[in-house]
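Standup notes, structure subgroup. Blocker cleared on the cytidine-5'-monophosphate input:
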Amino acid sequence: MPDLWPNLVVALDLDSEQKIKNIVAKLTPKVKKFKIGPVAYTRFGPEAISWVHKKSAEVFLDFKLYDIPNTMAETAKAFVDLGIWAFTVHLKAGRESISTLTNKISKYAKEKNKRTPLVFGVTELTSKEASLEQILSLAKEGKEAGVQGVVCSVWEAKAIKETTGLLAVTPGIRPSYAKALESKQESSADDQKRTASLADAVKSGSDYFVVGRPIVKSDNPYKAAENLIESAF
Ligand code: C5P
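Run returned:
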């Protein structure tokens, strides 16, 4: 049975410092990666990143950059300085913006003797419907522009990996219906459209599973994470 804990990324979309710190304390050291996006970063800024780093876990910064080449690259240089593991860009920002960014951050990181964060390209949001053709063409463009991975739904992960060889990062993971009933969570009562179970995510070859609310809104986040991992086998 493979150990899936290192592949679980818990999304900290929370508005309370106490809640974030509690969840990070409860889930580490088992959970090694946390995703911070606009919900937490707008309130707490780089401090939120330090709460995760203090527990020896890594940060995936999810701002989904979509801008002109210079603005994207300059923002990403600040990400290098924050010491994060990975961050996201919208692949729809286009080849020029993304390749400028990937070239500039690797140069900047070398100059500063820091590691270069991984760049993950968002194809389509998992809260929206999308065609596989559209997603594969965005993924190919991302690869040419130098991204290391693609954020996609579980249903596209296999095709993306086969076509591009990029890492597949899959949000929209939901407990199976039976597990959802056990933990009194409605598996479909939210905004995610292209959802899948963790078992399907594993079968798809997904490299990282991003899970937010099923874990962070649970009364017992550790148990919810453990149940989810066990549900994959
Ligand atoms: O709470 P939930 O499990 O739906 O969280 C999923 C996380 O993944 C959210 O932070 C959301 O912003 C993010 N995400 C997504 N779909 C994408 C890219 C990122 O749901 N395509």
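Discussed briefly. The beta strands are 8-11, 33-36, 58-65, 86-90, 118-122, 149-151, 167-170, 208-211.
Next: hand off to the docking folks.
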